Amino acid sequence: MSAQQLTDSAASITKHYTDTTKFHDAIKLLNQAILLDTNNFISYSKKYFLEFSLGQFSKAEHSLIKLIELRPDSAELYAHAGFLQELAHDTTESKKSFGKAILLYKVTLDTMDKKNPNWLNAWKMSAICTIMAGQEKIIHDFLKVNCTSAVDSSFYDIETLSKTKQEFLEFIRSKYSH
C-alpha cells in the first residue's frame, strides 16, 4: 500500500475524521504512511489533528515539529506550536512561537489583497497570537477605537478578540483535555 492509500484509508475509517472511536486506528495507518514517505505533509497534518483532538498534546507536538520542518514559513503552524507550548505550561517557548507566527502573519497580510477572502482570517489569527504573546492590550485598544458599530464589532469578531490569554487557554483545555 502507498502512503497516499494509507492516508486515504485513515480518512475513510474515521468517516472523514468524524468518528472519534477510530482515531487511534487512523493514527496507526498514518504512522505507516509516514514510514513510507517521511516528508508527507498531509499524513503528518492528519496525524497532528487526530493527536490534538484526542488530547495527546505531547505526541501532537512531535508531529507539529515535523510539520514546521516541512513548512517553516507557516504562521498557522507556529500559532499551533504556541498553543501546545502554553498547554504544556512552557510560556517562554510559547512566546517565541507566537512571536514567529505574528511576524509570518504580518508578511502574509502585507502581501495579501484586503479583498482576498482569507485576509480577515489571517488578521484574526494574528490578533489572537498577539493576545497569546501577552500583548492583549494592543488588540483590546484597537477594538475600542475601531468597533463603534454592530457591523464593526461583527467584522472584527469582538466577542472572540476581547478575550484574554487565560480565556483562550481555558476554552482550549475545556474542548480538548480529557
Provide an overview of this structure.
- The chain has 178 residues and is mainly alpha-helical.
- Helices cover 76% and strands 0% of the residues.
- The chain contains 10 helices and no strands.
- The longest helix is centred in the last third of the chain and has 28 residues.
- It is elongated.
Short description:
The protein is mainly alpha-helical and 178 residues long. The chain has ten helices and no strands. The mean pLDDT is 92.
Please, what is the average pLDDT? 92
Shape: elongated
Count of individual beta strands: 0
Please summarize the sheet with the most strands: none
- Give the ordered list of helices and strands: HHHHHHHHHH
Structural class: mainly alpha
Q: Report the total helices.
A: 10
Query: Which spans of ≥5 residues are poorly predicted at pLDDT below 50?
Result: none
CA-to-CA gap between the ends?
34 Å
Write down the Rg.
18 Å
Strand content: under 5%
Helix percentage: over 70%
Task: Note the topology.
Elements: H1 3-13, H2 23-36, H3 41-53, H4 57-70, H5 75-87, H6 91-111, H7 119-146, H8 150-155, H9 158-161, H10 165-176
Please tag this protein with its features:
178 residues; mainly alpha; elongated
